[in-house]
Amino acid sequence: MDENRRPIKSRSNRLILMLAGTLARSAITPNQISGASVIFAAIGAAALIASDSIGAMIIAIAGIQLRLVCNVIDGLVAIEGGKRSVVGALYNEFPDRLADTLLLVAAGYAVAAPSLGWAAALLAALTAYVRVFGGVVGLAQRFIGPMAKQHRMALLTLGCVANAAETALHRHHICLFIALAIIAAGSALTCITRTRAIVRDLHDVEAGANHA
Predict the structure, then answer these.
(1) pLDDT, tens digit, for every residue of 130-169?
(2) Spatial distance between the Cα atoms of 101 and 177, rounded to a whole number of angstroms
(3) What percent of the chain stands above pLDDT 90?
(4) Which class for 108: exposed (0-12), middle (13-18), buried (19 or more C-beta within 10 A)?
(5) 20-38: average pLDDT
(6) Which pTM does this prediction carry?
(7) Can you give the residue ranges of every domain in the chain?
């Protein structure tokens, strides 16, 4: 497997493989699938803002999960389906950053803490920046957490589920705020852990060169 490709367990899921195979045989391109992830994220973000509605939370959860499905399938269609393109790397990264920003910023407005949402979105983008920078200096990209993309989206989904439960029970809405705060803090920590890993790897490369 490409060392710069995010390891995702769901790539071996039978339903995911069947869907990817169907799309690979169609006229749909991997870049279009990547673009669709932004559309699903935008739908989820719009629903997040209406956070006092159980129905809106269900739509938000669906938007988040469909965004993730697109993120898995686009790579399968591109690589396993033989539909790579010269701009595929751009479509693999840029839609992710847009989707993260839409969802996290919307969550911030949903909990009346827009600055927290923007901070979470910025820190999420920085985790990707640090990862890609590792590749720029010649290292394998590090997808380590504790708050990589799949962890951010899992926690945001859990926050939406808890928010829906709070609405049903007529409780004060705090769970989505807590989830967003953890995402922001965890993303900051992820930036640190990835940066430290890059530093270690660079020192290892230097040590290996000196002993060669």
Answers:
(1) 999 999 999 999 899 999 999 999 999 999 999 999 999 9
(2) 16
(3) 78
(4) buried
(5) 94
(6) 0.92
(7) 9-211
Q: Tell me phi and psi for residue 53, to 5 degrees.
A: -115, 130
Nearest to 3 by CA among 201, 175, 150: 201
Rounded-to-integer distance, Cα 110 and Cα 98, Å: 18
Cβ(20)–Cβ(71) below 8 Å: no
Residues 6+ apart with CB under 8 A from 154: none
Q: DSSP 3-state assignment of 3?
A: coil
119, two tokens: 């901070």
**Which tokens sit at 162?**
């808890």
Question: Mean pLDDT, to the nearest integer, of 16-36?
Answer: 93
How far apart (Å, rounded) are the C-alpha atoms in residues 83 and 147? 30
Both tokens of 5, joined, read 């490709």
CATH architecture for the domain at 9-211: Up-down Bundle (1.20)
User: Which of 119, 128, 160 has the alpha carbon at shortest distance from 147?
Assistant: 128
Q: How many residues does the chain have?
A: 212
